[in-house]
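Running this now, will post back.
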Amino acid sequence: QVQLVESGGGLVQPGRSLRLSCAASGTIFNLNDMGWYRQAPGNEREWVATVSSGGVSSVADSVKGRFTISRDNVRKTVYLQMNSLKSGDTGVYYCVADLTFLGPLGEIVAQKDYWGQGTQVTVSS
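Update: finished.
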């Protein structure tokens, strides 16, 4: 049974930094890509960043040079370091993890995405 629990959101002034965390609980056989999406009021959910199981990362153009995604496979946690925050970064941030579950013979019994509950990030002066 898997749950993704997010933390680290809050209210910050423009130009400041914030770090989000998302920890996966439960037994996970294969933890594949993990990433972050965000959604501002009245907008569609947009992709922010992704990091593979090997630590290879990719971020959206809108946050390049400011945001960094990383992960700790032992702690089953993905992070999003957000620097030089702008008002446009305001929104609910959701983490997502692609999981593969193996059966007793090593066969793949399931593969699906799991989403965190979301954490609010507000950038305002």
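Residues 13 and 125 are 5 Å apart (CA to CA). More later if anyone needs it.
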